Amino acid sequence: MPSRSPNILAGPYLERAAHRRKDEAHVQAALADPRTLFVPVWQTRNSILRQGDLLVAHFVTGVQALATTSATDYVLLGEFRGQAVFAVGLSGDRPQLPDPAVDFQDLRMVAGALPAEEAGLLAYARAMIHWRETHRFCGRCGSPTEAVDGGHVLRCSNETCRTQQFPRIDPAVIVLVTDGERALLGRQAAWPPGRYSTIAGFVEPGESLEDAVVREVREETGVDVGVVDYHSSQPWPFPSSLMLGFTAYARSTDISRVDDELEDVRWWTRAEIAGGAVSLPITHSISFRLVEDWYDSGASRPLREEPGVRLWQLPRR
């Protein structure tokens, strides 16, 4: 089987240089270096620069960033394009930006319009700042936490506790279920009409990924699946998920929703998908890639070349 290229938000987009995090002298020198790049995050939104029809990440220098917030809000991400790079969380009202071409946007919607390495970096920054903001107190004794190791460890400030917290992710399975000729897709009630996606859910304690796939499909659709094949994974920091993608093969096709998480579940043929009967997920999501790879495996023309296919609304690049 040919190797797959990384999903958007994944891949070797920077040198994490984890060994540098414990070197406090290096961290402080990097903070003071005017060449250092900072990735601002405000209320989970990333700073984006529009250059004509193109979108790119907006970075600020050390001097600009140090004037906006305290150093305790910085997280050393590593080295990007030969420069040290930090995530920096901004609090309070929307920051005043001197350049009208710069704005804070939802990365979930614009990631596919950014250069891939910049999208990955912004996702990493967003995830780290979210973790920092939601773990300001010790879960064991309730004391405030303090950042160490370049912002990658939050340590309890209580000398008798000193519990350490590390960045967390929430593993979730996402699966394209097929009976060979059709794909099983569902929709949530809050989505616009016609929007459907693959089946997904969080992995529970004591559960393997394969067991989670079988359970989630059965709970949300009533369909029983047999063979479960791993496809690929994608960081999805909205707010802190790691999406683990699978293809599963149905042993039954009758739909009977056990819970009310999905408003509707249907089987869709390739012809219906190509004809725009269903609106597919955004192209930079692993959900779309799962549908695309299944579709292309049995179609004479790739899904992206079908003129009638419908996608969730995306910003233009």
Automatic annotation (TrEMBL):
Stretches assigned to the Nudix hydrolase domain: 167-290
Q: What is the superkingdom listed in this entry's lineage?
A: Bacteria
Q: Which reaction does it catalyse?
A: a 5'-end NAD(+)-phospho-ribonucleoside in mRNA + H2O = a 5'-end phospho-adenosine-phospho-ribonucleoside in mRNA + beta-nicotinamide D-ribonucleotide + 2 H(+)
Give its E.C. classification number: 3.6.1.22
InterPro entries, per the entry? NAD-cap_RNA_hydrolase_NudC, NADH_PPase-like_N, NudC-like_C, Nudix_hydrolase, NUDIX_hydrolase-like_dom_sf, NUDIX_hydrolase_CS, NUDIX_hydrolase_dom, Znr_NADH_PPase
GO MF annotations for this entry? hydrolase activity
| Family annotation (PANTHER family) | NAD-CAPPED RNA HYDROLASE NUDT12, NUDIX HYDROLASE, NUDC SUBFAMILY
Report the sequence similarity comment from the record: Belongs to the Nudix hydrolase family. NudC subfamily.
Protein name per UniProt: NAD(+) diphosphatase
Native source organism of the sequence = Steroidobacter flavus
